[in-house]
Design a protein that fits this description.
disordered N terminus; alpha+beta; 19% helix; nine-stranded antiparallel β-sheet; 9 strands; single chain; 120 residues
């Protein structure tokens, strides 16, 4: 009886994990107009975040060029991802507040900030 109860509770907990993620996903989903501050000046960018089969998938266009994005993770209001840019991999972390976000990027010996607003 105890083993059956433990199995039922474990199954319920596992079933709730995707639901918790699904509730957070809309915070990040959308098209974001971004300004990336870099040592070379401000770079206009667009980040598109979609929910695909229960996971977030981001696409980033930096200064008019599409970049490869991996390891997208949303924890509460914080979205993290890795972006390939000019031969390096950069860590990006932003905090989403409503229809805006602010954050930082770092990699290749450089770092900077980014700010965005979600398109209506």
């Amino acid at each position: 009886m105890k083993n059956s109860l433990a199995l039922v509770l474990a199954a319920l907990l596992l079933a709730c994990v995707p639901l918790a993620f699904a509730a957070d996903a809309p915070k990040a989903v959308g098209v974001w107009d971004v300004v990336v501050t870099s040592p070379d000046g401000d770079l206009p960018s667009v980040i598109t975040v979609k929910q695909v089969e229960g996971a977030l998938k981001a696409e980033i266009e930096v200064n008019g060029v599409q970049r490869v994005v991996t390891d997208e993770k949303l924890e509460g209001d914080v979205l993290r991802m890795k972006v390939q840019y000019e031969g390096g991999v950069y860590d990006v972390e932003v905090k989403i507040v409503g229809d805006a976000f602010e954050g930082t990027w770092q990699g290749g010996g450089s770092s900077g900030t980014l700010k965005a607003k979600r398109r209506p």
